[in-house]
Amino acid sequence: MKHNILKLLVLALIFVGCKNEKSTEAASDEVSTNETTEVNVYTHRHYPADQDLFTQFEKQTGIKVNVVNASADELMQKMTQEGAQSPADVLITVDAGRLVRAKDKGLLQSIDSKILNEIIPSNLKDKDNQWFALTKRARVIAYAKDRIKPEQLSTYEDLATDKWKNKILVRSSQNIYNQSLMASIIANDGEGKAKSWAERVVDNMAREPKGNDRDQIKAVVAGEGDIAIVNTYYIGKLLNSKNPEEIKAGEG
């Protein structure tokens, strides 16, 4: 992988995305010193906003961005198979758990950048500067507005109490979002308490885990459970759907 280009594209993503004029100028100074004409981006993301950033990067630097889209696991497998000959310069994926996996597989390398170190706080980057977070996602508790009062909700730890018996909906523990949630509970409460919490949450589930986060929200609206553990942006996806039933679920 081309170390400098990895740094440059990450910088462009951060600073163009934040629209920080001073920071963009600093990123441009670094970009102008590089002679590479192409950069290869392996990305899990598939949003128009990303392509807009790539287009701005191309206009700003004259460097062509080649995008390879696939799931995070597919991209990491591809990079592993390609080995030292991988053309990948930048890996963009979602969730810290996947970033840790990529690092453990030896797919990443350290970046020494004053700008990145100044802009991104320590809790949003790898201790060895092998990855930097560009955005954050919130995993929250969604609830049935006709059956649950907001004041009944408090913490993740509270989901393990008896009052939520047969009320919780959540996708499989194989999902990276739930694994990262569990990791955060381990970090805050320790492995023993985290294990006990997980066991009690399983006891409080309204059904066997199935489907994605949108399916959990739909199940709450359908009355299969009263609360669901989901990422907030899935609610946005439902509200912006062309399907009236999904819009109804997002509003419910």
H/E element order? HHEHEHEHHEEHHHEHH
Low-confidence stretches: 1-34
Helix share of residues? 40-55%
What's the name of the CATH homologous superfamily of the largest domain? Periplasmic binding protein-like II
Main β-sheet, spatial strand arrangement = 2-1-3
Number of helices: 11
Q: Could you characterize the architecture of this molecule?
A:
The protein has eleven helices and six strands. It is mainly alpha-helical. The protein folds into two domains: 3-124, D-Maltodextrin-Binding Protein, domain 2 (3-Layer(aba) Sandwich), CATH 3.40.190.10; 139-251, D-Maltodextrin-Binding Protein, domain 2 (3-Layer(aba) Sandwich), CATH 3.40.190.10. It has a three-stranded parallel beta sheet, covered by helices on one side. A three-stranded mixed beta sheet has the order 4-6-5. Strand 1, helix 3 and strand 2 (64-69) form a beta-alpha-beta unit. The chain is globular, with a radius of gyration of 21 Å. It starts with a helix and ends with a helix.
Write the layout of secondary structure elements.
Elements: H1 3-18, H2 21-31, E1 38-43, H3 48-61, E2 64-69, H4 72-82, E3 90-92, H5 96-104, H6 114-119, E4 139-143, E5 168-169, H7 176-189, H8 191-203, H9 213-221, E6 227-231, H10 232-239, H11 244-251
Parallel strand pairs: 1-2, 1-3, 5-6
Antiparallel strand pairs: 4-6
Helix pairs in contact: 1-2, 1-3, 7-8, 9-11, 10-11
